[in-house]
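Fold Annotation — chain and its backbone
Encoding — discrete vocabulary of local shapes
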Amino acid sequence: MSQDVTPETPAQAAPTEPQPLADRGSNRAQRPGSPEFLRWITSGWDARPASSATRSPAADHTAARRSALSAQFPGDRLVVPAGTFKVRSNDTDYRFRPHSAFAHLTGLGVEQEPDAVLVLHPVADGTGDDGSGHRAVLYVRPMAGRDTDEFFSDSRYGEFWVGARPTLEDLETSTGIPTAHVDELRDALSKDVGPDGVQVLVVPGADETIEAVVEEIRASEAAGERDEKLAEALSELRLVKDAYEIEQMQLAVDVTIEGFVKMVARLPVAQEHARGERVIEGTFVGHARQEGNAVGYETIAAAGEHATTLHWTENDGPVRAGELVLIDAGVEVDSLYTADVTRTLPVSGTFTEVQRRVYQAVLDAADAAFAAAVPGARFRDIHAAAMDVIAHRLEDWGLLPVPAEVALDPENQHHRRWMVHGTSHHLGIDVHDCAQARAELYLDGVLEPGMVFTIEPGLYFKSDDLMVPAEYRGIGVRIEDDVLITADGNVNLSAALPREPDAIEAWMADLLP
């Protein structure tokens, strides 16, 4: 990786004071800083090509989202930062991903804008954007001129290092939001702030620097207490997806299914490698980067006993013939919406009798959950339907110490020994979307058209579990699909990926050599 650089100076005398730690990264720098070099590197550049920016298909939808948020906070100034880079190691950063609330309200996904801030400024009722009580402004760091030091010397933002950023005009065209230089942000946030004036709310945890600026200018400590209400509202705003979001969710699922095809085709190679799970994972990660933005979360490629660990992401184990491999994976597309799909597959292409028995029980639980996922039902009803099947199946196998109906009592829950997680979670621009929503709108929320969530029951029998017969030990099964609630029921967005055991075996037979 190339190194950041700072101007080189003629032979220097030994410093008389210790060099601050923060400045020592420049010790390796070798960029010349002479006037001749500066004249040379900032001249001789052709004119930039004409802008190709077009209005994003998300722009009309994001305007409606901002209007809905505006209605909940009349008179308040709302600050939604994109966030900044996060350090991976020393002076190298992770790939930037904007805060989900910022992406949701602006439509900016892969169009990465670290340090950008969306502000909804309060205006007289009805005179704001689309008749709302707020006027949105997007504060960004624009592209630097080629006559500036930033152009060639700044490894975080300089065009030589990370490519050209969009101009203010380009961003305004694509988002439909008026733009301004981020240097104007502090003054803009301070305007009309006072005990009897504007209160400023900021999304907590998105950008510490912006939070500090807001804290300095707050007129009331009570405003800070309402930051959590803003985060809550932003999360709840995503409970029901609009048409653009549903389109992006289906795209993410479709690309994810393509990745599953590639992973199955690589199973023979995985069996030959000492860390075959990483062969599976690497196949999917490469696919996600080629066809989308990235993976939506760390891929789980859990073979054999590892499948009984719910979030197994080490993926450093072997993949053996005769065992199952549980693959939980999702592609995040350029808009940052992600799929979340799980299939448990027989490595050799055929289930054993006991593997099929466990798999069918989980599938039956999933089907019961699908039947419960209809408009007017409550989100918690989905889990209850799945658990009813799981408990009765475990009773049939003689594994419960009490009858299934007794186990299902909230005071007992014996069946949850083998499925400790929930059956569903909302899905969208975050893999666990809407996580800051109030319980009465999430767990106890009423299902309505436009909601997208997972259905993912499972059974996990650890290899050292003495409460189950030996034939079950070391088997973990989870089946996960992405579900859209419609006016008259639901749609399985991931239905194109086989679910039935016979269909899985036939599908794998076509893919394996």
Remarks:
- The first helix runs from residue 35 to 41.
- Confidence is low (pLDDT under 50) at residues 2-13.
- The radius of gyration is 27 Å.
